[in-house]
Amino acid sequence: MTTPAVLADGLPGDVGRKRAAISRRGQARRGGRTRFPLWSWFWIGFAALYFLVPVFSLVQFSFGGTLANGRSAGFHWFLAVFDDPAFRSSFWLSAQIAFETVALSLLLMVPTVFWVHLRLPRLKPVMDFVSVLPFVVPPIVLVVGLEPFLQNFTWLYSRPEVLPFIYVVFALPFLYRSIDAGLRAIDLRTLSEAASNLGASTFGALARVVLPNLRSAVIGGSLLTFAIAMGEYTIASLLLFNTFPVYIFYIGQGPAAHEATALSVISLLLTWIAMAALFVIGRGGRETAQLGVTK
Amino acid sequence: MAAVGTIEPAAGEPSVGPPSVGPPSEGSPSGSALQWRRGARTWLRWIGVVPFFGYLAIFLLIPTGELVVDAFKGPTGHFTGANVSAAVHAPYLSSFETSLELSALSALFGGILGVFVATAVLHRGVPAALRPVVFTFSGMASNFAGVPLAFAFSATIGTGGVLTGLFQHLGVDLTTLVPLTSGVIGLSLVYTYFQFPLMILLVIPAIDGLKREWREASTNLGASTISYWRYVGLPIILPSLLGMMLLLFGSAFSAYATAYALSGSTGNLVPEVIGNLLNGNITVDPQLAYALAFGMIVIITVVLVCYSLLQRRASRWLR
């Protein structure tokens, strides 16, 4: 940046005064940059409080209360929850559904996004738009619309295996973004041309060259998908399946408020473990992505 | 996450062209054979996306389309406008009003808070090491929705909540100031919990997309921080900000679990009313549920159209 103060002082009359005023403002601004950014920290602190206070309250509540013998509860509610066979069955049902959702959505999305990047780049704006759709389509609308359709397939409709098929739709935006970003980070064209020059088929190249480079993006997207499928309530409850969130809701409606908060803490921890893993992988991912760049 | 990709620069993206045709130097077949191969390959290329779009058709588009048709059908299958007409009159009209109000309020709260936090994190006086932390926490919080979130807020500002107790010492009753079980203020605060982190995740790439040169150029021309944002930064970024807030609006409008866990069957939001009509909490009336769902589709469609228009406008400067 030039130092207009020196220049401006040498100028006569109006122009000089104006320039000097401007430069003073500029200096004040430049001085302000190094000052402690109070407003920035205010907003960051406010956001941190907004984020932490409800979590703190939830955790406190799950350890709170007193038992019949007058002792404070401690881990009592958690132990009570773990003892409940309904907890275990709903939890495993949800975990199973989440795994199936991840497998199904990877099977659908990885080849598609790969194909669009490599062969149909002009379809990308369409994909971008389509992948926003499930984000705003209300789950309840989808249930209302799907119910009559699914009733044609009673063997599927009555089984919880129907849920992964629906959850894939909602996992789509997250998985698409993640794989799309992963593919952008590597030089897909060069990689796949090199692979085919060495005699690999298109899908051989996908499996043996591109996928290893996409590892962190795929794992990241899968974790998000897992967390979403694990926490989905609306569709499962309206189709009458006892998944983990439906069970939490059911307990919360009853008199067992402390158990319900303990369950919420467990659910929260699950999501957070997934997100923390995402963070760790994301950091490792940058290195992998850089390794993949052949430029 | 949603919409991020559309504003990110398409780095390393080869320009659009016929990519699958080999270079002419490779053993050249006759012209017509090459043309045939080219045609076949173009055609084959589209087969690669059939599973994806087929899946979406079955699980997203056809159900939605069928629902729109069913909304105009009576219980015996004849066509009628009675359901839709009932859906847009009292008492169901007020559900739409409440839902729209809640969505707008939480998108506004979440959007504004998200933008402030995002700009704060990107401020150069704030250590860059904070960024990944904020990203991660935003990812956590934006996925913390539904039943557990409802319970967390009950434990915070509900009856017997932690903050409720604190504020009672100050003589403020939070359960009447921001009631969780009725009205939209309390609920919009709950929704803001997952809305503002989502906004942070969406908006950081857009703010990062503001070129440093623009800031320097305006400073050299004598602009203060305020006039930089007023005349340069905000006009460039505003379309994408509004687009993202529309996405927040859409996500609040479709949310069901959080509100239902707080208010039970007394809730008056459109998704809650549909849920009640389906599971028979009050009455079972699938036709009316179809009509209300159709109303939701109409509103979501308007949101999406505005979103894509804004997105087009936003991509003029931010690529």
Overview of the structural elements:
The complex is a heterodimer of chains A (295) and B (319). Chain A is built from 16 helices and no strands. With 295 residues, chain A is mostly helical. Chain A has two domains: 4-51, no CATH class; 82-292, MetI-like (MetI-like fold, Orthogonal Bundle), CATH 1.10.3720. Chain A starts with a helix and ends with a helix. Chain B is mostly helical. Chain B has one domain: MetI-like (MetI-like fold). Chain B is 71% helix and 0% strand. Chain B contains 15 helices and no strands. Chain B has helices at 4-7, 31-47, 50-71, 82-87, 92-122, 130-142, 147-157, 162-169, 174-177, 185-208, 212-220, 225-254, 257-263, 270-279, 286-314. In chain B, helix 3 (50-71) crosses helix 15 (286-314) and helix 11 (212-220) packs antiparallel against helix 12. Chain B is globular, with a radius of gyration of 25 Å. The two termini of chain B are 17 Å apart. In chain B, 42% of the residues are buried. Mean pLDDT of chain B is 82; it is low at 1-29. Chains A and B meet through helix 2, helix 3, helix 5, helix 6 and helix 7 of A and helix 1, helix 3, helix 5, helix 6 and helix 7 of B.
What is shown here, in short?
Chain A contains 16 helices and no strands. With 295 residues, chain A is mostly helical. Chain A has 2 domains: 4-51, no CATH class; 82-292, MetI-like fold (Orthogonal Bundle).
